Description:
Elements: H1 14-37, H2 42-70, H3 74-95, H4 100-107, H5 110-122, H6 131-144, H7 155-177, H8 183-205, H9 216-240, H10 246-252, H11 256-267, H12 274-292
Helix pairs in contact: 1-9, 1-11, 2-8, 2-9, 3-7, 3-8, 4-7, 5-7, 5-10, 6-12, 7-10, 8-9
Amino acid sequence: MRTTAPAAGTRGRWAYGLILAQSVIYGMGDPISKLVYRVAPVYPVMVIRYFFALAVLFVLFGRRITAGLRACRVTDWLLPSLCMGGAFIVGNMAVERTAATNCAFLRSLSSVLTPLLALAVFRKRYSWRHVPILALVLAGLYLLCGRGGLSRFGPGEALAMTQALLLAGSLVFGRRSLSKVDPITLTAMMTACSAVMALACQLTVGGAWQFAYTGWQVWAGIAYQALGCTIAGYFLQNTALRYIPSRRAALLQCTAPVMTALFSRVILGEKLAAAGVAGGIVILLGVAAEIMIKDENDG
């Protein structure tokens, strides 16, 4: 069985809402993860998160996933799955080595790397009409996340840039894979790769965890990471990519830092400066402009 990705266009504009919903989920997930990691080590949490998510997927969609895997080749899903899993592992390593604002800004550069990667690998052209919008969004991201500039470029910043490239790969290669793999199957394989990578990091780096002192709030946070950020987040992206180009998905994902700032205000009590508010507004205006543009190369 082979799936065919529907053409982008007016019928696919509802898919923009799927990426925006993903941004809301991830935006809430960032401050929740911060609370979890205050009392629990990163890698054991990630192991539980991804294996729990994988178990839920197979309980709910086991037959569909098995049938989907039989109908395709490993090469049809492996590359985007490795990119997605690697992005989250590398992202956690980056946060440990540099400021969170630096990570957020550099991670969002996937909006630039995605069209470049699509051009280099699949010869997908990038219309000049999108360049001003991309520049506007980058300016907004700088105001929101990177105000004050990157005072240094060390290992943490290099890892954050690597994460941006891997996120771009998950979009570019994921869109191509969805012509042969259905979204649920690809979501399961992305989750499986993430789980294996998290387990490898745990076995290599380690990290003790006193389960007896773990409250229900931590377990609730891990459940949100698994069900929301992993299952729902991956699935929303994979479904949307059947209808919209990877570069548009990458630009819409720039709304995630805006949502993170809003939810951090509510959950963590963090205040957003006037420049950050202005940056969020600029990002939203840029995303709205991108959605309104009609492009004949969006197929």
